[in-house]
Structure formats: structure tokens, C-alpha cells
């Protein structure tokens, strides 16, 4: 199948097979099961190795492609804070492990509504601190995430900075959700995946009584100064494009090295199709290069 036909096919599958599952009327527990099936079309590289361990009271999946991975990427999966897992994101973490040459570790952080804010943020912080406690230098650790996981990555960095904890080398953000008020959503001609009604429900379940203007919930409401360099990738056909643009603008205004890449006619977290769709592969390859450029690796191989 040529790339034009493949892109059309993937877009249609998003629109007619996945989008209907992101329905606020479907109970969250059922939605998690259904959404996990949708990720079966996302494949890691064949030579990628996965291992699930327990760390800090949660399951953590480690993905490696290189024989001796150098550096670590803490990857926070998306899913609106209510669904998704390291298992659903194996295709994306596997391809990122290949492109970056690092060990990618993805925690199965707690989800809402059972565990609303700040549970996910607490879990991310615990795992990051554990890496530091194991003597991994922060210059060899990068943080990445998609959608809600992208917003969580920025929130984590804000919390670490405010606590005086050494920051990671960089942030890689795929279609980050960074304003849970959803007041400034983009209106593409055709959004093949997300709906306002679904993300409103996800925001309500995650935030509970917490203000949606809390920077640890909606990072675009806060101070980003002093944060690590950011690579932000977003599709032009998604309602979260404004989130990406606003994050990049605010970061630059506050002195952060931020790069925004907009991929025309692509959808929310299109990077899950890396290894199949050439433009998705190129995006993840670019993310891997960005991670390598900003990490400083000591002579010894880094193993989490």
C-alpha cells in the first residue's frame, strides 16, 4: 500500500473505529478495554525488547532496541488520564527506543476516576526521583509523553523545579493536552479522533474539585521559566493544536528553548503509526535525535 492510501486508510480507521469509542456515554471501565484493542494497529520494531518490572509500587515497562541503550526516557502515556497504559503504547515507546537509542521506561500510573489529581503526577514524580536515587544523572534522563501524558510531563517538570529537584535533560511532547479548561480548542475542518464532549468528561474525572487553572493540571496557566528544552509535535487536524501552539509561545516568552513542529493533515498522536506511516516514522526519528542531542551520557552504559 502506498503512503497516500495508507494515510487515508488510517484516517478512516480513526474516524469510524476509534472515535466512536471515545464517547462520554461509554463507562470508563468498558472504554479502557475497547480502546486497548484500537492500539493493536500500532507496532513496535521487531527487534525491540520489552520487560515489565515493579518499581515504586507500580508496574513499569522497559523498552530497549539498542544492545546497550544509553540514557533513559521516562515516557508518560496518554489517554485523557482515564485510560491507556504502557501496553497500549508499546508501538510508540518501542519506536522511540529505536530512534533515541535509550531505555524507554513507561509507568502504569494511576488513572481517574478511581485516582484523580494528583495521583498521576505523584506517581511520575516518585519514579523520576527513584531514577535519581539510583544515581542516574538528570542530564541522562529525558521525559516524554503524548496527549495527557504530554501535559503530565510538563506538570512534572514544574513541580520538580519548584521543589529544587534537578530537571531532566529535555521534554518531548506529542500532541500535549495542557489546558484542561478546554476553553481555547482548535476547530479543524475534520477532527478524525477527539471530541470536545469526551475530553470535557476526562478533565472532569481527573480534576475533581481541583481548579483547572492549577498549573500542575493545566501548565499553560503557570510559569514555565527554567524548564528543559521542549520539542512539541502536533497534527494540524486535531482540536489540541492550540494547546501545542500556546505552550510553545508561552515557553519561548519565558525563556525556554521550545520547538514546535506542526504536521499538516495528520491527527492526534499520529506518532503511534511510526514504522508504518512514513511521516510518523520521520516525526519519531526527529524526536529521537532531539533526545540524543540534549542528553549528556557518561562513559558507562546507563541501565535503569
Low-confidence stretches: 300-304
Number of domains: 1
Spatially, the strands of the biggest sheet line up as 1-2-4-3-5-6-7-8
Please write the CATH class name: Alpha Beta
Distance between the termini: 39 Å
Beta-strand residue percentage: 15-25%
Radius of gyration: 18 Å
Q: Let me know the number of strands.
A: 8
Largest sheet: 8 strands, mixed
Number of helices: 8
Please state the structural category. Answer: alpha/beta
CATH architecture: 3-Layer(aba) Sandwich
Shape: globular
In a nutshell, what does this entry contain?
This protein has helices spanning 3-18, 28-38, 90-100, 119-133, 148-163, 196-207, 241-253, 278-294; strands at 49-55, 58-64, 72-76, 103-107, 141-146, 171-174, 230-235, 258-263.
What does this structure look like?
The structure is a single chain. The protein has 304 residues and is α/β, with parallel strands linked by helices. It has one domain: Alpha/Beta hydrolase fold, catalytic domain (Rossmann fold). It has 8 helices and 8 strands. It has helices spanning 3-18, 28-38, 90-100, 119-133, 148-163, 196-207, 241-253, 278-294; strands at residues 49-55, 58-64, 72-76, 103-107, 141-146, 171-174, 230-235, 258-263. Helix 3 (90-100) packs across helix 8 and helix 4 (119-133) crosses helix 5 (148-163). The termini are far apart. The model is unreliable at 300-304 (pLDDT under 50).
Amino acid at each position: 500500500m502506498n503512503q497516500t492510501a495508507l494515510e487515508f486508510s488510517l484516517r478512516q480507521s480513526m474516524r469510524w473505529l476509534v472515535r466512536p469509542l471515545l464517547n462520554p456515554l461509554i463507562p470508563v471501565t468498558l472504554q479502557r478495554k475497547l480502546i486497548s484493542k484500537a492500539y493493536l494497529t500500532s507496532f513496535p520494531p521487531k527487534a525491540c525488547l520489552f520487560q515489565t518490572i515493579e518499581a515504586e509500587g507500580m508496574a513499569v515497562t522497559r523498552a530497549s532496541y539498542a544492545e546497550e541503550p544509553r540514557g533513559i526516557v521516562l515516557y508518560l502515556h496518554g489517554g485523557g488520564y482515564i485510560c491507556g497504559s504502557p501496553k497500549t503504547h508499546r508501538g510508540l515507546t518501542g519506536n522511540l527506543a529505536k530512534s533515541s537509542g535509550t531505555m524507554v521506561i513507561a509507568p502504569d500510573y494511576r488513572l481517574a476516576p478511581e485516582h484523580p489529581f494528583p495521583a498521576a503526577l505523584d506517581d511520575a514524580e516518585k519514579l523520576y526521583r527513584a531514577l535519581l536515587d539510583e544515581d542516574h544523572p538528570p542530564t541522562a534522563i529525558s521525559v516524554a509523553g503524548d496527549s495527557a501524558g504530554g501535559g503530565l510531563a510538563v506538570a512534572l517538570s514544574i513541580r520538580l523545579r519548584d521543589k529544587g529537584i534537578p530537571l531532566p535533560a529535555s521534554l518531548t511532547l506529542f500532541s500535549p493536552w495542557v489546558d484542561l479548561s478546554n476553553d481555547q480548542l482548535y476547530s479543524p475542518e475534520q477532527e478524525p479522533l477527539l471530541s470536545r464532549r469526551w475530553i470535557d468528561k476526562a478533565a472532569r474525572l481527573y480534576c475533581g474539585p481541583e481548579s483547572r487553572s492549577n498549573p500542575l493540571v493545566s501548565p499553560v496557566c503557570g510559569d514555565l521559566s527554567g524548564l528543559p528544552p521542549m520539542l512539541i509535535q502536533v497534527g494540524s487536524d486535531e482540536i489540541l493544536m492550540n494547546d501545542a501552539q500556546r505552550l510553545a509561545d508561552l515557553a519561548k516568552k519565558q525563556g525556554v528553548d521550545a520547538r514546535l513542529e506542526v504536521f499538516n493533515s495528520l491527527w492526534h498522536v499520529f506518532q503511534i503509526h511510526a514504522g508504518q506511516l512514513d511521516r510518523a516514522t520521520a516525526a519519531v526519528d526527529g524526536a529521537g535525535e532531539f533526545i540524543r542531542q540534549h542528553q549528556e551520557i557518561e562513559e558507562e552504559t546507563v541501565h535503569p
